[in-house]
Amino acid sequence: MSTAVPVERDKPVGPRSRKGAATRARLVEAAKAVFEEDGFLDARISDIAERAGLSHGSFYHYFDSKEQIFREVAMALTDLLHAPLSTVIFNPAFIASPQERIREGIRQYLLSYRQEARIIGVVEQVSRYDEHLTSVRYDYQERDRERVANSIRQLQLRGWVDPDVDAVVAASALGAMVTRFAEMWLVQNLFEQDFDEAVEQLSRLFRNALNLREPSAPPA
């Protein structure tokens, strides 16, 4: 699920036919399962190929290395987690107040995070030493942070957000709050939390930090 502007990734190899694309996708899905089960260091290309129903040599027709396919898996997850920005927060077809958009965006983010928590934990570990992956993920985060900051500025112009709030700082801090909370809760299992209550509390903290006001109803 890709919703952000594509970031340059490792150049794909192999045919660009429909069959080739389907085989490549099958390899990525197989790799995700193997990385989830074995972690990055213990995962083997032969296991990925076998899981995908292909020969070991066929793997190299589509990917150069284990690192390359792992990055493909990681960026697919990044696309998934960032999707609510486009499907909810900035979707003009989604008719809702800013408060409702924030709550629904956080809810969808946490749903995806909970579903993919195991592989996300592996991605976070690898990102600590894979500079290429870290750089690409940072580019995504920077782009989305600027989108959120611009949205906060627009709300400030409408008088719905505290004008003294620094939009860039707010976008960075509130984004970090949600992502770090999700990692501590769903990956590291540092505490137990009811899902709906987590959505409600994060949404409230987000709104309160911005001093977000309900839009005034138009005159009758």
Shape descriptor reads elongated
Largest sheet: none
Number of helices: 9
Strand content: under 5%
First-residue to last-residue Cα separation: 42 Å
Second CATH tier, the architecture of the largest domain: Orthogonal Bundle
CATH class designation of the largest domain: Mainly Alpha
Give keywords:
disordered N terminus, Tetracycline Repressor, domain 2, 9 helices, 220 residues, Arc Repressor Mutant, subunit A
Your description of this structure?
The chain is an all-alpha fold and 220 residues long. The chain folds into two domains: 13-64, Arc Repressor Mutant, subunit A (Orthogonal Bundle), CATH 1.10.10.60; 66-210, Tetracycline Repressor, domain 2 (Orthogonal Bundle), CATH 1.10.357.10. It contains nine helices and no strands. The protein is elongated. The model is unreliable at 1-15 (pLDDT under 50).
